[in-house]
Specification:
Structural class: alpha+beta
CATH class of the largest domain: Alpha Beta
Number of helices: 11
CATH superfamily of the largest domain: ATP-grasp fold, B domain
Radius of gyration: 20 Å
Strand content: 25-35%
Order of helices and strands: EHEEEEEEHHHEHHEEHEEEHEHEEHH
CATH topology of the largest domain: D-amino Acid Aminotransferase, Chain A, domain 1
Shape: globular
Largest sheet: 7 strands, mixed
Number of strands: 16
Helix content: 25-40%
Distance between the termini: 20 Å
Length: 351
């Protein structure tokens, strides 16, 4: 008998539109001989609808105008183990959920917590690891504790910043040195990230980052290659072929990721095999240290001055179109897109 897979997309997040693109591809490529798919879309205002139409209608919000939506919610009653159709109150059993949600209210442990309360197995990291990996300050703190090399960093809240702005800016410039990257602590897809070259631009970058989160992270700039590695598994995870990104902009910002089309990708990365193996080993160590399961894409810098492999960030629900780095890295490792989706669902059921 086929398993019912609830694919959750959209969400109340600055990365809502990116989620629609990823989910369209996932829904279109889940093996139909093994799974029945129920696409559940969450609007920018937080309403949830079962979508029964063509997944190609997801990007651009065309699905909401399709006439093929039905209001429903995930039930928190564990005996239901599924969704409630609000039109008639009927319950539909779900075997496993596949959250294709990026950013807040989906990748940060909130959706994972809801699914755990509901008793529904789901693809990807659990509540705790999702929350820790989403918060860059928490990720950095755990990495430091586990002796995983990374850039120098500091973090502070809007409350602290409001009370002692000049002191914090001065401390950051002295400790980190310019240029400094300023990031919202809880955001993805490089939303709200800026690179500051002096005190004035540092202040401006902090103000922008605080528009997206109440806590921000400041990091020293690393001169090095931008390297990505995909990890797959639960207790015994495996790392993929290593990839490299050469951004078309000053750094791999939102525009370079999703709008401009002239960033360069190298798979495999332009590293010797020993260095690539070091990246894979550190990726698996990072995955385990942060309590990840299912899948994550882990990003690094390989510093030009000494070849040091330095953790940049962990993405617990990375982009998932066929041209996204996570599936492309495993395709280069011998696992097709269809097989990868199947493995992720099986890992969720095993967990």
């Amino acid at each position: 008998m086929k398993k019912k897979v609830l694919v959750i997309f959209g969400g109340v997040s600055s990365e809502h539109d990116v989620s629609l693109v990823s989910a369209s591809s996932v829904i279109a490529n889940i093996p139909r001989d093994k799974y029945d798919i129920l696409p559940l879309g969450i609007t920018k205002s937080g309403r949830s609808f079962l979508f029964k139409g063509d997944p190609s209608l997801l990007p651009g919000e065309k699905w909401l105008e399709s006439g093929e939506i039905e209001n429903c919610v995930i039930s928190t009653d564990r005996e239901h183990h599924g969704i409630i159709h609000l039109s008639d109150g009927s319950i539909e059993y779900i075997d496993v959920a596949f959250p294709v949600l990026h950013g807040k209210n989906g990748e940060d442990g909130t959706m994972q917590g809801l699914l755990e309360i509901s008793g529904i197995p789901y693809v990807g990291c659990d509540t705790v690891s999702s929350a820790v990996c989403m918060d860059k300050a928490m990720t950095n703190a755990v990495a430091d504790y586990n002796n995983i090399l990374q850039a120098k960093w500091m973090a502070f809240t809007h409350y602290d910043y409001s009370g002692k702005k000049a002191e914090l800016l001065k401390n950051a410039s002295e400790y980190l040195g310019f240029p400094i990257f300023v990031k919202p602590a809880n955001a993805g897809s490089s939303v709200g990230i800026n690179k500051a070259a002096d005190i004035e631009s540092l202040e401006s970058a902090c103000e922008i980052a605080f528009e997206f989160d109440n806590k921000i992270v400041l990091e020293e700039s690393i001169d090095g290659a931008e390297i990505e590695c995909a990890v797959l598994g639960n207790d015994n995870p495996v790392a993929s072929t290593v990839g490299e990104i050469v951004p078309c902009n000053d750094f791999y910002d939102y525009d370079a990721k999703y709008i401009a089309d002239n960033s360069k990708l190298y798979i495999p990365a332009r590293l010797d095999e020993d260095k690539a193996e070091e990246v894979r080993n550190i990726a698996v160590k990072t995955f385990k240290s942060l309590g990840c399961s299912g899948f994550s894409r882990i990003d690094f810098f390989v510093r030009k001055s000494d070849g040091a492999v330095m953790l940049n960030e962990v993405n617990t629900i990375p982009g998932f179109t066929p041209i996204s780095m996570y599936p492309k890295l495993f395709e280069a490792s011998g696992i097709s897109y269809h097989e990868l989706i199947d493995r992720l669902i099986q890992l969720a059921l095993e967990k």
